Amino acid sequence: DTEVTQTPKHLVMGMTNKKSLKCEQHMGHRAMYWYKQKAKKPPELMFVYSYEKLSINESVPSRFSPECPNSSLLNLHLHALQPEDSALYLCASSQVPSPPTNEKLFFGSGTQLSVL
Amino acid sequence: QQQVKQSPQSLIVQKGGISIINCAYENTAFDYFPWYQQFPGKGPALLIAIRPDVSEKKEGRFTISFNKSAKQFSLHIMDSQPGDSATYFCAASMEYGNKLVFGAGTILRVKS
Fold this sequence. Notes:
Shape of chain A: globular
Helix content of chain B: under 10%
Distance between the termini of chain B: 39 Å
Strand content of chain A: over 45%
Order of helices and strands of chain A: EEEEEEEEEEE
Number of strands of chain A: 11
Shape of chain B: globular
Largest sheet of chain A: 7 strands, mixed
Number of helices of chain B: 0
Number of strands of chain B: 11
Number of helices of chain A: 0
Radius of gyration of chain B: 13 Å
Mean pLDDT of chain B: 94
Largest sheet of chain B: 6 strands, mixed
Mean pLDDT of chain A: 91
Order of helices and strands of chain B: EEEEEEEEEEE
Low-confidence stretches of chain A: none
Distance between the termini of chain A: 36 Å
Helix content of chain A: under 10%
Radius of gyration of chain A: 14 Å
Oligomer: heterodimer
Structural class of chain A: mainly beta
């Protein structure tokens, strides 16, 4: 199984809503990532978890709250988002970096989020 | 110094032709250079990657050419097919970092 599964595929939420994005992988990868991608732009790194611990937070606003309950699951909790947060949210996984590093990233298909 | 500059922004190629996408970087600490392919509605998928100890890597119709002195690398797609129509991102990273720095992307359209 070489898949990263993301749910839901599409999400529409109001600015006062609370919602969560979910990501799952069963490849035994111990690094998991959240990326944000605007239309016609490259993915932008948001968070990295290594061995279920947050290792990188790219100065993401606190209205985005990541959680890694176990080695297979990654969540992104959303609260009080703004319309400019509308984007494709991608989850990815990889082996934990060790030389040679940055082994292949496996991306999910993403959640297309619209904030009204 | 952390940027990767990618060109062209978009590219139209006839079926059977060669597609060429170029990237340039400044940070000499980068030592891993992957290319990702992304279809509409999907996440990026790793296509091919190279490290600076080789000047060329080929996998099927896809070839990376790497010029360390010029700090440039390029993707060549031979015998381009309509199914290759997608957005292509070059990227770079350092040995001990989790962070990939992506280029701006190239939208490739192969006309049949």
